[in-house]
Structure formats: structure tokens, C-alpha cells
Amino acid sequence: MKPRQSAGWREWGGLALLALPTMLLGLDVTALYLVVPGLAADLEPTATETLWIMDAYGFLIAGLLITMGTLGDRIGRRRLLMIGVAAFAAASVAVAFAPTALWLIAARALLGVAGATLMPSTLSLISTMFTDARQRALALGVWATMFAVGMAAGPVVGGILSAAFWWGAVFLIAIPVAVPVLVAAPTLLPEHRTRGGRLDLLSVGLSLAALLPIIYAIKHAASHGMDLQAVAAALVGGGATVAFIRRQLRLAEPLLDMKLFAGRAFSAALAVLLIGLVGFGGVMFLVTQYLQLVADLSPTTAGLWMGPPALAMLIGAIGAPLVAARISPGVVMAATSALSLAGYTLLALAGTESKHAVVAGFALVYLGLGVIAALGTDIVVGAAPPERSGSAAALSETVQELGIAAGVALLGSFSTALYRGSIEVPSGMSAPVAEIYRDSLAGAESLENRISAEALDHARTVFTGGLNTASLAAGIAIAVASLACFVMLRHLRPLGAAAPEAEPVTSTSGSDR
Predict the structure, then answer these.
(1) Shortest CA distance to 186 belongs to which of 78, 263, 278, 345?
(2) What is the pLDDT of residues 274-321, one digit of tens each?
(3) Which residue of 129, 196, 199, 346 shows the fewest CB atoms closer than 10 Å?
């Protein structure tokens, strides 16, 4: 067996290069929320077009991650990354200079297709470049942190560029990111292609038919409740999922190797990632609303307040591999997940004047996420054979995308239902105004000049109560994930400690575990 070598300057330089598109992807997720008012005034989209402008990017990324991960395994991961970076830059220019809403929707969809190539490519290249377990986990921690930094920087960068230029300027950041990646990738990044053969196009179609309706159902339920449309989409997605799985089990060269799920560590790590991202996605959605609607901060200022949580994630993602070199990764994940419960507790006890407590609580949540993202992703990618690492990386990313979407839908819908059930409409308010006031805190804020200060304070108090209850529910889920980590992953050896030659050759009892 080939010994695992420590990474040199080329590998660490390659990691720095991979950090650029990773951070760009994170920035692109959150920057759009700030520029929507500007593009709405410029392009005048309908309400339906606005929703598609927001969702087209995420739908295509989530739907194509598995396909692109497998494609990278077959045509070369560096090659797919370079194609994706060039396509992302071109689509970003099309977004920035979109003359109509329909043009913008199409450009955002192309941006999602290009983005789907970047996530699994960067992850699988890291697994190729860093064969030492400790260094790989550290590199994955850097990867996870760069994505989070991009998300935190999105509102700030978007606010600055849209104020100085126009709403499309934020998307042109892709150009100075793409140039160094395309120039330096052939030198710093190794090419890796392990599988031949053609893609099974029917499997690609079934994967899209499975994921897109499920994601649509989640997002639709978050906005309109679990109505017939959401149920129908979920049933279509569920049926396509069954068909997809059955086809993968029959194929000699499947799009997604279902045998990966037979590994206990692989499946447990995916489950923990899913639960962790559900809690994080929902709470992040509510905390950003709290900072802007309850604490009355501008989007740019709210983005700056998200700096401490991003720093906490950096500490977790970088520090976790160092600790896991001495202690089982499963124990480290369980302990930090338990620690993040303190963050959910702070959020569950926050009031309308608790801005600092909310940020501190979310920082602890982010700390736990950093550890889960770094070590959980390392377990998933490391558990797969090298020829399947692209597929494993894509599956990890798909689970995280679904987790965030489900978190926003579940906790967002839950808090909205609590708001609508608890809000008390002041007497004397007209029916049209009362309907807007009762719908959401954002609606109440839009009526600021037409309702009393007491009525607005009441709406903020009710919303904060929804944040409290949603945080409590998320905390319970994280407690379950922490217990699952300890029970199912505590057997994992510390990173870099699994040396086969150190095992007694004659031992058959397995008592060391």
C-alpha cells in the first residue's frame, strides 16, 4: 500500500487557489438578497419572476451536484473545475448586464449549472491533493470556512458595490476570481480522472426529477404552507427518488454508487450533516431577519454583525482537525454539537433588546457547524474509495443544500405560523392594513408610517417569540445529532492514527474497538 505523504507548497498553494471559487459561491448565495430592491426597480419583474430570480440558481445547483460530481470523476476534476469557473464568470457577466427579468432568470439558471461543477470539483480535488488524514481534514476545514466567509461577506460587499455602482456590479467579482484560477490551476492543481464510460442520461434525468420537485416542495411549503401543490411536488420527487435508486442498483457504472451507504460512518456522518444544516439554515434565516427587522439594522450593518459568527466557524473548522488528531472525530463532533446547544439556549431566551445575545448565540451555533462541516465532510469523502470521491463530495454537498433549504422551510414556516397565531391586531385598524400586519413582521415593518409604535413593538415581540420557539426545536434536533455522533462515530480513530501496520496481525477479536 502506498504511504500517505505530507502535502507540500504546491498542495497548499492549490488549496489557496480553490478557496477563491469556494468563497465566490458563498458570496453569491447571500449577495442577491441585498440587491433585489435595485434590480426590481430597474427590471420591474413580476412577483413570480422575482421568485424565479431568487430560486433558479439554488434549484440548478442542488439538482445537478450529483451529476457533476460523477462527471468530474470521469472527465477529470481539474478540467471540470476550469470549465465551471469559466462558465460561472461568463454567466455572471450575463447576470450583471441583464436587460430584462427573463434574461436574468435564464442567466441565474446558467449560473446554477456552472456552480454545480465547482462544489464537488473543489472538494474532490482536496481529497486527491491531501492524502494525509490530518492535513485533509484541516484543508476541508479551510474549504468550509471560506464558503461561510463568502456568505457573511455577501451582504456587506453587495451593499458597498450596489451603492457605489449598480446592482449588477456585485456579480462581476467573478471575473477577478476566474482569471487567477484559470491561469494557475494547471500548475497548482493535479488532474485526476478515475472512471471511464458515458454518463447514464436517464439517471441524470431521474436525479433532477427527484431533487428539483422535493426542493420546490420545501420552498413552496415555506412560503404558502403544505398545500396541494407542495404535496404533489413532494410525491413526484419521492417517486422519482425510488426509480433513481432502483436504476442505480442495476447499473454496472451508476451515477451514484448506492453501496457507499453501506458504510456506517458514511451514512451516520451524512445524517449528522443533514440535521446540523437543518438547524443552522432555519436559525440563520430567522437571525438575519431579527437583526434587520427587530434590531433595525441596515443589511450592510447586519452583515458586519455576522462577522463574529463567521470567525467562530473559522475557529471550529480549523481547530477541529487539530483536536481530532488526538481524539476521535466522532467524539469531537458530539462535544461541539453539545456546546452549540448553549447557542440555541441563548437564542431561545432572547428578547427584542438582545442583539448581543443573539449574535453570541448564533456564533456558538456557527462554531458547531464549522466542526460538523469540516469533520463530517472529511468522514464522508474519506470513507469513499478514490474513484468515487467526486460522487461522495457531491452527495455531501447535496445533503447540505437540502438541509439548509429544509431548515428555512421547516423553522421558517413554524415561526410564521406562531406569528400569525399569536399576533393581536389593534382595534381600529382597517381590514387591508390588518391583513398585511397579521401576515409577517416584514409586512408590519412596511406599515411603519401607518401604525402606532406600540403595534410595531408588539409585532417585533411576537416574531422574537417565534425565534425563541424555533431555536428550542432546533436545539432538540441538535441534541439528537450530538447523541448520534457519540453512539455511531465514537469508534473512529483519531485522524492519522489508523496505521494498518500497527495492528496485531494475529488478532481476530476486534477488542481494540
Answers:
(1) 78
(2) 888 888 878 887 888 888 888 888 777 777 787 788 788 888 888 888
(3) 196
Q: How confident is the model at residue 82 (pLDDT cuts 50, 70, 90)?
A: very high
**Cβ neighbours of 513 (radius 10 Å):** 8
Is residue 223 within 8 Å of residue 55, measured between CB atoms? Answer: no
pTM to 2 decimal places: 0.75
**pLDDT score at 502:** 39
CB–CB of 214/233 below 8 Å? yes
State CA 188 to chain mean position distance. Answer: 27
If you write DSSP's letter for every residue of 439-464 in order, what string do you get?
A: H-HHHHHHTTTTS-HHHHHHHHHHHH
Written as nine digits, the cell of 421 is 397565531
Residue 214 half-sphere exposure toward CB, CA atoms < 13 A: 21
Q: Closest Cα partner for 149 from 31, 27, 61, 28?
A: 27
Closest CA to 328 of 388, 400, 378: 378
Enter the C-alpha cell of residue 247. 436504476
User: Average pLDDT, whole number, for the chain?
Assistant: 81
Residue found by looking up cell 401607518 in the block: 450
Q: What is the mean pLDDT of residues 334-345?
A: 90
Q: How far apart are CA 162 and CA 159, in angstroms?
A: 5
Average pLDDT over residues 175-191: 90
The residue assigned the cell 426590481 is: 40
Would you give the DSSP letter of residue 375? Answer: I
Separation of alpha carbons 60 and 49, rounded Å: 16
Query: Look-up: residue for cell 470539483?
Result: 121
Angle at 436 between CA 435 and CA 442, to 5 degrees: 150
Q: Where is 172: in which H helix or E strand? A: none
Do 72 and 124 meet the contact criterion of CB atoms below 8 Å apart? yes
- Angstrom distances, CA of residue 216 to CA of 158, 245, 255: 26, 20, 23
C-alpha cell at 326: 488526538
Residues in the chain: 513
H-run or E-run covering 293: none
Neighbours of 424 (CB within 10 A): 11
Contact predicate 143/19, CB 8 Å: yes
Query: CB neighbours of 151 closer than 8 A, spacing ≥ 6?
Result: 26, 27, 29, 30, 310
271-280, 314-323, 390-399: segment of lowest average pLDDT: 390-399
Q: pLDDT at residue 497 above 70?
A: no
With b for 16 or more beta-carbon neighbours within 10 A and e for fewer, the 281-313 pattern comes to: bbbbbbbbbbbbbbbebebbebbbbbebbbbbb
Which of 319, 364, 454, 475 is CA-nearest to residue 411? Answer: 475
